[in-house]
UniProtKB/TrEMBL annotation:
Protein name, entry field: RNA polymerase sigma-70 factor (ECF subfamily)
Species this chain originates from: Actinoallomurus bryophytorum
Region described as Disordered: 189-213
Keyword Transcription regulation: yes
Ranges where the RNA polymerase sigma factor 70 region 4 type domain occurs: 143-191
The keyword Transit peptide is assigned to this record: no
PANTHER family found in the cross-reference section: ECF RNA POLYMERASE SIGMA FACTOR SIGJ, SIGMA 19 FACTOR
Lineage: Bacteria, Bacillati, Actinomycetota, Actinomycetes, Streptosporangiales
Length: 334
């Protein structure tokens, strides 16, 4: 059947080409997202990949599977994007009436974007090679994707192909027009870099996705933030809680400084309502600022990282991402 579809697609049959590539579309999109850290960039890379595959199908020699061939194209499209100088710049602080405290540091991955869980269906339950080292849910988490962005492009590609997807070293070498020795060396360096970015911890595992325990923590966060109850909010945080705000580079680490940031928001008089979502396999919340007119305007998306019954990380993204999660840009008065 596949051979017949390839023959028809080579003859210009668009339906046959879609039948060949559609089963791999979502996993390729997730692959591009892991490499680029941006849903928009991942979608552009995916479209470029499919166009290149359509135009280059005559050169597909069928020495490898079609899936492997598509991963080769997608990986190299992502590498071209990473090597280009046109990445989006960090954004200046632009929240009126709120004076943020001095950040712990300025983050290096300001262009990070969240990935809707709705797009993960059929994308992270694909068969993996025997050498994969990460659970698929872990490898889509915000912390993991952020750490990947700090690796040199070639090391990033090798680590994702080898340790996340489980391709053999010789397959990766062919994808990257390299040698097995070069791939092995790059993987060693990438693993070392990832360990430095994500040192091992003895954190409790998070509650199961969609469980009553997870729902309870999220509900406490919503109650505390919506009512500007700083003490209740701080009680939910781990001592080393980490907060980031892409595309603004401000990063805060530690309960005290995160509490000061939240106090500056609450002290401005801003009050919010929230709608639930899910991003990167984690609970997320659309945040809506209450206006004097009663209308509530979407201002951002919070993605929470949980450990046990606490919150160990919060990422706040711009309100422009809300439609990606099926959330409205505003809510009517009530």
């Amino acid at each position: 059947m596949t051979t017949d579809l390839i023959s028809r697609a080579r003859a210009g049959d668009g339906d046959a080409f879609r039948a060949l590539t559609e089963p791999h579309r979502r996993e390729l999109q997730v692959h591009c997202y892991r490499m680029l850290g941006s849903l928009q960039d991942a979608e552009d890379a995916l479209q470029d990949t499919l166009l290149s595959a359509w135009q280059g199908l005559a050169g597909f020699a069928e020495r490898s599977s079609l899936r492997t061939w598509l991963y080769r194209i997608a990986t190299n499209r992502c590498l071209n994007t990473l090597r280009s100088a046109g990445r989006r710049p960090a954004k200046e602080w632009n929240i009126p009436g709120v004076e943020p405290p001095e950040p712990t540091r300025l983050g290096e991955v300001a262009w990070l974007e969240p990935f809707p869980d709705a797009l993960l269906d059929g994308a992270i339950d694909v068969p993996l090679g025997p050498e994969a080292r990460y659970e698929q849910t872990e490898s889509i988490s915000l912390a993991f994707v952020t750490a990947l962005q700090l690796l040199p492009p070639r090391q990033l590609a090798v680590l994702v192909l080898r340790d996340v997807l489980g391709f053999h070293a010789n397959e990766v070498a062919e994808m990257l027009d390299s040698t097995v020795e070069s791939v092995t060396s790059a993987l060693k360096r990438a693993r070392g870099g990832l360990r430095r970015q994500r040192p091992a911890t003895d954190r409790e595992p998070p509650p199961a996705s969609g469980s009553t325990d997870e729902d309870a923590i999220v509900a406490k966060f919503v109650s505390a933030y919506a009512s500007a109850d700083l003490d209740a909010l701080v009680a939910l945080l781990t001592d080393d809680v980490f907060m980031s705000m892409p595309p603004m580079p401000l990063e805060y680490e530690g309960r005290d400084v995160v509490a000061r940031f939240c106090a500056s928001v609450f002290g401005s008089g801003a009050r919010f309502d929230f709608l639930p979502a899910r991003a990167n396999g984690q609970p997320a919340l659309g945040a809506y600022l209450r206006a004097p007119t009663g209308v509530r305007h979407g201002t951002g998306l919070f993605v929470l990282t949980l450990t046990g019954d606490r919150i160990c990380a919060m990422a706040r993204f711009d309100g422009g991402v809300l439609p990606w999660f099926g959330l409205p840009r505003s809510l009517p008065g009530r």
